Automatic annotation (TrEMBL):
Location, primary (coarse class): membrane
Gene Ontology cellular component annotations, sorted alphabetically: cell outer membrane
Protein name: Aromatic hydrocarbon degradation protein
Pfam family, one: Toluene_X
Keywords associated with the record: Cell outer membrane, Membrane, Signal, Transmembrane, Transmembrane beta strand
Signal sequence range: none
Length: 412
């Protein structure tokens, strides 16, 4: 009873913070070129590599943009052949950044992004309702940063990361004909990033960046139960409102990125990226409840530890841009993203697949102003599901597409 009541819901909510269903949407121009990173035309480079600020051609640069992200997931049981499909609302991540160069060799900046966040909504009575009915996630990264030009062809940059997150989760508790809501609106974490940006030749840009792991600390989470019988509240040591608090440290993984852009001709450039995500850091999750004895620690029944067998993953990206005129730019890209867990660890709260994505977009330059439009279509690969820990056996498929609109302003 202990694990079925709470642990799967809390664990899955944490995984979404960690990026178990990760969509890279932090720059419209970058998305159009497979979300590659070695582009230093404006302040959108800040999220990818703070060192790139030193090569922005304008002393002041401002960018902002937003996306629509739509995805649908299906699951079918191998034995019963019953199927379920999500009804997810469109996600709306955004980004904004500003950079300023007060002196020739020093550039400062600030980036605000929403790198993790989505809503997944399964039918209330589907067979996995004890795992998830609905989950909403939000996250915000605030990154002040600085970049120093070490030489005309190389710069070094570093950033501080302050992260805030929220999870709002509903699931059924069929043993007692009830349900539970898991909520934490004040999870916070701190991290850093740094990188080098090289331009050894006017035709070649090289970006090498690192983003640290972040421990998101949830200190004031609330689990709210609803049961028809008050006796269950007493049994679980809940308060009169059916609530108990919990705390946890939620590990977010580190990321390494190597990118390059080469100008084949004055009008045509090609970009490539390699990303490496340190998912093996996420080996387990420990939750500490205030009163409820729903854990699995023999010496302290309020502590619940869940082992996870995540593996490191990689992403390969390739994009291109062609300047039709001095004002109009066409962009295309494609990338392959590995799932961070195997079939035996698949979970419907944050479904993840080996995924191929094709992208494209158009950019317009109007003197100091820029307008970018982009879209992407994801092709997650079908995968079998055989997670014996949560009793889920079958097959799962997904589809997803993204679109974005961004603006840039380089006044001087």
């Amino acid at each position: 009873m202990k694990k079925i009541l709470v642990s799967t819901a809390l664990l899955a909510g944490v995984l979404s913070y960690a990026g178990g269903f990760r969509v890279s949407l932090q720059g419209v121009k970058q998305l159009a070129m497979a979300h590659t990173s070695a582009h230093a035309e404006d302040a959108s480079v800040t999220f990818f590599n703070p060192a790139g600020m030193s090569f922005i051609p304008s002393k002041l640069s401002v960018v902002a943009g937003g996306f629509g992200a739509s995805n649908k997931v299906t699951f079918q049981n191998f034995n019963t052949l019953q199927s379920a499909e999500t009804d997810n609302p469109i996600g709306t991540p955004f980004y904004a950044a500003i950079t300023y160069r007060p002196i020739e060799k020093l550039t400062v900046g600030l980036s605000v992004t929403t790198p993790f966040g989505s809503t997944i909504k399964w039918p209330e009575n589907w067979e996995g309702k004890e795992l998830v009915q609905k989950m909403e996630l939000k996250s915000f990264y605030f990154q002040p940063m600085v970049s120093v030009k070490l030489a005309p062809w190389v710069s070094f940059g570093a950033s501080y990361i302050y992260a805030r997150g929220k999870v709002d989760w509903d699931k059924a508790v069929t043993q007692f004909d009830g349900k539970v809501n898991i909520n934490d609106e004040n999870a916070t974490g701190h991290g850093y990033g740094f990188g080098f940006y090289f331009r050894p030749d006017p035709k070649l840009d090289i970006s090498i960046a690192y983003r640290s792991a972040i421990d998101m600390k949830a200190k004031s989470g609330t689990a709210t139960f609803q049961f028809p019988s008050q006796s269950v509240y007493t049994q679980l040591k809940l308060n009169a409102a059916g609530q108990d608090g919990f705390s946890a440290v939620l590990p977010l993984v580190e990321e390494y990125t190597i990118g390059l852009t080469y100008k084949v001709t004055p009008k045509w450039q090609v970009s490539a990226d390699f990303n490496y995500h340190g998912w093996e850091r996420y080996s387990k999750l420990t939750l500490d409840f205030e009163n409820a004895p729903i854990g699995n620690n023999p010496s302290d029944p309020t502590i619940l530890t869940n082992p996870k067998n995540f593996r490191n993953s990689k992403t390969f990206r390739l994009g291109t841009q062609y300047a039709f005129t001095d004002m109009i730019y066409g962009r295309l890209g494609a990338y392959y993203d590995e799932a961070p867990y195997t079939t035996d660890n698949f979970i419907p709260e944050t479904p993840s697949y080996d995924t191929y994505v094709v992208t494209g977009g158009v950019g317009f330059k109007l003197k100091q102003f820029g307008i970018d439009v982009a879209g992407g279509y994801a092709m997650p690969q079908y995968r079998k599901v055989n997670n014996v820990n949560i009793g889920l056996n079958g097959q799962s498929k997904a589809t997803a597409f993204y679109f974005g609109l961004g603006f840039s302003y380089n006044p001087f």
